[in-house]
Design goal:
The chain is 54% helix and 11% strand. With 200 residues, it is of the alpha+beta class.
Length: 200
């Protein structure tokens, strides 16, 4: 299966246009993607709050800024949706790195349903989990990927799956988003910076 990644990337949205697009959808009672229902709309509204918070609270340390200064040039294509809690937590953090990179990093965001074949090519353990970040070089070749969540968030998910007899989904989601709020993007930043060094 072959896809025109340059075309897909150019179809996708930068962070601020994406935020404006999501706000406009919510104003119409909609969200991104093919599935439209009240639950997904409420998730999207929650994610707007999370993105607003992360826009204000996520900061790069001096050490991280030094790493950003040495980043290779790359394009990040994020497959994600506005209703997805992990997407809402992660893309504002990526945007902070983009802002600090002075043009070395670019990020675009696209709904999983816009190009469904894309997630088929880049699944996570056979699942269509999002967000999925494709690290592309200047020739629009995918060098490596990351996602759908950092190691600590993955551990919280695995713990819930192993203890569903005593933990509800609501318990899991509360623990997950408390962790995201406390970490303030630090683990995401460190993981993404490590992965980006594979892009040449």
């Amino acid at each position: 299966m072959s896809l025109d990644l340059a075309l897909i990337y150019n179809t996708a949205l930068d962070y601020q246009p994406y935020r404006t697009y999501v706000d406009a959808l919510v104003a119409k009672g909609e969200t991104t993607g093919a599935t439209q229902n009240e639950k997904y709309l409420e998730y999207t509204k929650l994610n707007i709050v999370r993105m607003n918070r992360n826009d204000k609270t996520v900061q790069l340390s001096e050490q991280q800024l030094a790493q950003v200064a040495a980043l290779p040039v790359c394009k990040l294509l994020v497959i994600g949706d506005a209703w997805c809690g992990d997407t809402g937590q992660i893309i504002p953090v990526i945007e902070k790195i983009v802002e600090a990179s002075e043009g070395r990093w670019q990020m675009r965001i696209i709904s999983r349903d816009s190009f469904p074949d894309l997630i088929e090519i880049y699944p996570t353990n056979g699942a269509k989990s999002i967000p999925k970040i494709l690290f592309m070089n200047e020739q629009n070749e995918v060098i490596t990927t990351w996602g759908p969540r950092p190691a600590s968030a993955l551990a919280i998910l695995k713990n819930w799956k192993a203890n569903q007899d005593t933990m509800t989904k609501e318990d899991f989601e509360k623990e997950l988003h408390i962790w995201y709020a406390k970490d303030r993007g630090q683990e995401i930043i460190n993981e993404l910076l490590a992965v980006s060094m594979q892009v040449v």
